[in-house]
Every structure is written in structure tokens, then in C-alpha cells.
Amino acid sequence: MPDPYARPMQTSFEHKPLEQIETGALIVPVFEGKKEERFGAGALFDSGEVAGKPLEMTLLHHPPGIAAERVLLAGAGKPGKFDPAEMRKLAGAALRHLKSKSVKTMALALEAACASPEFAGAAVEGAILGDYEPDRYKTGEDDKKSVDRFVVAAAPESPEVGQAPSPANGPLGAAVARARIVADAQNFARELVNEPANRLTPAKVADAARTMAAESGLECQVLDREQLERLGMGALLGVAQGSAEPPNLIVVGYKPSDVGSPVRLGLVGKGVTFDSGGISIKPSDGMEKMKYDMAGGAAMLGAMRAIARLKPAIAVTAYIPCVENMPGSRAQRPGDIVTAMSGKTVEVINTDAEGRLILADALAYARRQDCTHLVDAATLTGAIVVALGHLNVGLFASDDGMKDRVLRAAKAEGERMWAMPLEDDYKEYLKSAFADLANVGGRWGGAITAAIFLKEFAGDTPWVHLDIAGTAWLDESKPFLAKGPTGVPVRTLVRLAMDWGGTS
Ligand code: BES
Ligand code: ZN
Ligand code: ZN
What we know:
By secondary structure, this protein is of the alpha/beta class. It folds into 2 domains: 10-136 and 143-152, Leucine Aminopeptidase, subunit E, domain 1 (3-Layer(aba) Sandwich); 195-500, Zn peptidases (Aminopeptidase), CATH 3.40.630. The protein has helices at residues 42-47, 84-100, 117-131, 170-194, 202-216, 225-231, 234-240, 295-310, 355-368, 382-388, 400-413, 446-458, 490-499; strands at 10-15, 25-31, 57-61, 70-77, 105-110, 149-154, 219-223, 248-254, 264-269, 271-275, 315-325, 337-339, 345-347, 373-378, 393-397, 417-419, 437-438, 463-467, 473-474, 484-485.
């Protein structure tokens, strides 16, 4: 079972003149078309060696006139296009560049237009996310480089002040502290997703949730197989039948101290610890990746971890149905008909369309628990990857107000999402001759029919479904992020809860 994620790297904010910062490397964003004259960089611009292109990195040693041992000129692209999302990437790429060269301490210079809480927070998030490596099971210490300290530095507000206004260094310091909480929560989710299925069974996910909840001051309840049977969750139990690992439904709850708001947000996350496909078994090529089929559930746990610390004004509860989808001798078969908790019957045409079956019962349960609004996240379909590639989360909404809230939060957090259609006409595709609906809808519009299936169980509760099959896992590392789990959409969910305010 993973420990609650905690990287040793320290992060902080300092108000200090740049030339006085003692650090291994001072990271200085440089822009296209804006010649940097300091640190002896002017000649590099003149020769074209440095152009300020996005994520171009140039390391200068012993720059004259400053206390830092090195300066890293970090390409920021066109000044007009540089936003907090770009800063997040720049900081991550700079940290990873310096870490590969064994630099242990670094400071990022926040200057001019970037000296705002949004940029400061994004820089720290980028650094913490960039620092993460899915290397828990590599035993050779050699390939495990680490960074001790990442500082965000801005010039003091007035020269005489020197040190910033206390407490916590004002708005920039507060943004850095918030960023730490959010990025740690995202890495917590990534660490869970990276766990292989032999080590992270549904029972172990429940253990991790209990530990996280206890440490965060959250409520946690785990419903076991017997309780799920009593509740009539035939859709969830049918999926679990083929595995020796018992299923569960994890419930983690946060309540604001002031109970003035009527909003109770439910976060429902797909927790399939391994998806072999079941009897409709998947091809072996790439099947090892299906340990990430619990990324939606992990994101909900990550979001709750941050929510516990940031304390939004609304109540938030995570519901995570956890199962392993295996083709054991008791496994459900194509053609089986199960009865979901809502009372609807489902013909299981394909046992590999298991996510929607477990989510059907979890969504119904969240509604029964009086959630007023629902968001689910699930690695639900290969079809969403066909539609949107790996760049956008597929967003499906039954309610325009919620859709706008989620899209706004996603935009602010640099987690790209794209609204997909959810029209009732698609329900046609899910017709079954023998039950209320089939669990698959044929060849076309696979991500949409999956969402339409879920909608049958979300009912009239305002609801957003996020298909993260294409975005929860990175197949190749980026300059700013390691290969493997991304932790999407933790940041969006945290912001969604924080920005909701006290009203519906
Ligand atoms: N977990 C998969 C979806 C998936 C595919 C996630 C690729 C990540 C990468 C899901 O349970 C599944 O198998 N879906 C099927 C549905 C089909 C049988 C209708 C799919 O997408 O092929
Ligand atoms: Zn599947
Ligand atoms: Zn799956």
C-alpha cells in the first residue's frame, strides 16, 4: 500500500532582490522577441543561441554580479501568450532540466507581469508535479535524483522592507502554500494510479483512503460485499464476480464548519484496479496499462485530500466503487442480465464495458445519499481517445450551469476539457431486446453511448461526466512531466469545490 505521498522537496516564497538569492540555480523566464541583457545573456540572444522559444533551456555558470551559482534561462515563448498554464510547464521543465544535472536547490524569478498569485502558484505546482517520478519500485539509488529546495522569488515591494509583509508573505506566499497542497494532492493521486494491480487491490485502495481520511480529518466509510448485496448493487457486483478480490464502495466525506450552503457535491470515481476485460478479454498488447483504470477514483481521493486542507464552503463527498475486472470461473458472461440498485435491468453484451456498470450503482447511491450535484471521472472508453486524442478530457453534462462551472475551473487550472454531445436520441443505441438497456452501444460514438448509459443512473441530478481515458496517463514523458499517471483532473475538482461559494 502506498504511503501518503510526501516528497522531501521543500517549497517556499521569498521577497528578495534577485542578485541576493543564494541558490544552486536561478531560473529566469526569457521571452521571444525580448532580449535579456542581464547575466551576460545579451550576446546569446544576438547570436540566436537563445531565442526564448517555449521550454528552451540554457544554463549559464557563475553569472557575474549575483549570488546564485547558475542562471537557467528558461524559454517562455511569446510574452502575450504566457499565462499560468505556461508557467506551470516552464517551472516543471526547468526543475527537471536542473535535476538531471544534479542541481539541488533552485529559485524561480517572478518578475514584472508574472508577479501575481496565479503565476506564483502555478510555478510551485509545476515544480512539484515535475519533480514526481513513478520510480517507487526502482531499487538502484543511482537513478533517483532529488531536489532539496524550490523557491519562488520576487523583488521586495519596497527596497527598505527587505522581508515581506507577514503573515505568510502576503498574497504570493499564500498562493505558494495553496499550490503545495494542490500539487501534493495531485501527486498523491498519481502515486496511487502508478501502483500495480498486485499491490493495489480494491481492499488496498480502501486502506489508502482510510489512512488519507484519518490524516486529513475526513470521514471515511467502506461498504463491503455484503452491504453492497443488501443495497442491491447488482451491476457493480456482477463485474466483481470474476475476481478473487472482494469489491467495495469507498465513501469519503468533507463538511464545511458553516453548514449554510445547500450544495452537496458528489465526486464519483471509477476504481477498477485492473481491467482485463473479463470474459470479453482484452488483447495482451498494452494490457499492463490497465492498472490505471482506477485513475478516476484516485483523482477523487486526491481532490478530497486537498479539499480537507483548503476547506471550501460546500459539502463534498467522494464515492469510489472499487473492483477488479477478471475472467475467473465465476465471472459474468456476455448475455447475463443484472439488476442495478436503481431497479433497472442491464444486458451485459460486453464484459469489458465494466466501468459504466460499477458507476451506475455508485451514481445511484450518491443520489440516494442526497447529493445535489454530481461529477464523475472515469477512464471509461477507448473511443474518447479516438475522438479527442490525449490532449482533452471528454466532458459530458446534463446541466448547462454545471458544465460552465467545470469548464471554467478546468480552464483556470490548465486542464483541457472539451464538451461532447449528450442528446437523448443516442439512447436508441443502447436498446436491448431482453433488458431495459444494453451495456454497449455498437461501433459508433462509443464515448457518447457510454455517457448516455451513465445518464440513465444520474437521473435529474445536475451531473457532469469526465472521460479521462486519454488524459490520465502519459505514454511518453514531457519536458515538464514524467511518463505515467498525470493526476488529471484533481486540480479542476479542487477549484470547482473552492469556487462554488455558499450558494447553489
Ligand atoms: N478501461 C477501458 C477503457 C480504456 C481504454 C481506458 C483505453 C484507457 C485506455 C474500459 O473499461 C473499456 O474497456 N471500454 C471498452 C468499451 C467497449 C467494450 C464498448 C472500450 O473502450 O473498448
Ligand atoms: Zn473495460
Ligand atoms: Zn475499464
